[in-house]
Write a structure and sequence with these properties.
This protein has 93 residues and is mostly beta strands. Helix content is 0%, strand content 45%. It has a single domain, classed as Immunoglobulin-like. The strands form 3 sheets. Strands 5-4-7 form a 3-stranded antiparallel β-sheet, with no helix packed on it. The protein has a two-stranded antiparallel ribbon with strand order 1-2. Strand 1 and strand 2 form a beta hairpin.
């Protein structure tokens, strides 16, 4: 299994990669992005985004959430929407 890097108080550490609960992005006629997160109801996640996968230490936290249902649709309400954006859901305690 691969490795993922996580920063904590300015220090980074390698963690084993975990199963990603995100499903493919749902196309929408509106200028919004819907992320479908499928995991155990009640799970806590930090949703992060970046427009640059080359510099993988630059992720912006969009929100922290507890899944009220599964699957759950998260709407990225960031404006203006960047032309290209990548997302990840990080499990948090």
């Amino acid at each position: 299994m691969g490795q993922s890097s996580q920063r904590n108080n300015g220090h980074s550490k390698n963690l084993p990669a975990t199963r990603c609960p995100l499903r493919p992005i749902t196309p929408s006629p509106e200028p919004i992005t819907l992320l479908t997160i499928a995991d155990a109801t009640g799970g806590n996640y930090r949703i992060e985004a970046t427009s640059d996968l080359v510099n993988t230490n630059v992720w912006t936290t969009l929100t922290n959430l507890t899944l009220p249902s599964s699957p759950f649709e998260f709407v990225d309400k960031t404006t203006p929407q960047p032309l290209r954006r990548f997302y990840r859901a990080i499990p948090v305690p």
